[in-house]
Amino acid sequence: MDRLVPEILFVVGEASGDLHAGKVAEVLRASAPELTMAGIGGGHMRDAGVEILEDVENLAVMGFVEVLQHIPRHYALLQRLRKRLQSGRVALVVLLDYPGFNLKVAEVAKQAGVPVLYYITPQVWAWGAGRLPTLARVVTKAASILPFEEALLRQHGIDATFVGHPLLDRAESLPTPAAARASLGLPVEGPILAVFPGSRRAELARHLRPFMETATLLKARIPGLHVVVSVAPTVKIRAEDCPFPCVHGASFSVLRAATAGLLKSGTTTLEAAVAGLPHVIGYRTSMITYAIARRVVKIPHIGLVNVVARREVSQEFVQHAVVPTRIADALMPLLDVQSPVRARAEAGLGEVRAMLGTPGASARVATMIRELVAARRS
Questions:
Q1: Which residues make Cβ contacts (< 8 Å) with residue 294, sequence separation at least 6?
Q2: Residue 190: what are its φ and ψ, rounded to 5°?
């Protein structure tokens, strides 16, 4: 093998990937300081010692239509990564989620003779099963985070290992509900509704108004109800659009403080499962994206908590079903601590939490990285 600078190249496409890659990089910095790290990411990776080649905020998009608008930027970035991979300095590429772009990076890495570890693999179980042959051809090793993914990937010739969900690492330091309420300045007693409308502009544009209307309805129905809106650190919401207090960058504290939640679909539903918060799921997207998704998505649920459970643990309201009165009706029993509906939801979330594995995903992935680099050197 040619002289190799032992650089790990991380590529993520959104804030959650930056967080998980940052945790892996922290472990690597302590356990393999001889490695250098670079990549596409954000603040978490930067804080962990990764040289940021492009900020992830320039890339994060979702939906079929939205992705098309970012093709020129993605193409230019792919050419930059191609030059780096062909330079001989990269020992291993670590990809996190973001399959539309990252599978192209994997192709380029394969052509350059650089091994690829895919952490948080594409959701081929939902749609895009045609990507499985590509994954088998270009990915050296896969680290899956959902319990059913390992067997599926192995059936298609992909060397996959279930490492557990990285959310469990964060859950080890969860505050008690009382401590979470105190940290947020919320009352110790009484019901609290947590609202998570999303972090992207498109999500906020579609979710904020109906979610606020739902919360307002519940405030009128339930005396003493407090509402807290959780948003990403970079998100700013105008006061006239949100009559309730916003909490920035403290999602687990909000989840632990609340009695029930109204969540947009996504990883937040798994965070709620880890935190033990009963919730309902609401989600809207563009009409074109929704029409395409109805044709290609092969699973009956969109909320990850329901996907893992393979049944409806948390009620879903999708597209035209995002109607404030209907959502408020579903949340009413979850906000009642004596309700049998709430008890069933809590039991279901406990089952999901157990299915996500055990803490230590970041350390397991870091071990896989060290092993792959050592194998290449030998």
A1: none
A2: 100, 160
**Residue 2 is assigned to a structural domain of this protein:** no
The pLDDT > 70 percentage for the chain reads 90
Measured at the CA of 74, the angle between CA 68 and CA 79, to 5 degrees, comes to: 145
pTM: 0.83
Q: Which amino acid is at 170?
A: R
Nearest to 147 by CA among 121, 159, 165: 165
- As a whole number of angstroms, the distance between CA 177 and CA 256 comes to 5
For residue 64, name the pLDDT band (cuts at 50, 70, 90).
Answer: very low
- Over residues 261-270, the pLDDT tens digits come to 999 988 899 9
The residue range of the domain holding 15 is: 7-164+360-377
CATH number at residue 186: 3.40.50.2000
Question: 260 vs 2, 49, 155, 187, CA distance in Å?
Answer: 57, 37, 39, 15
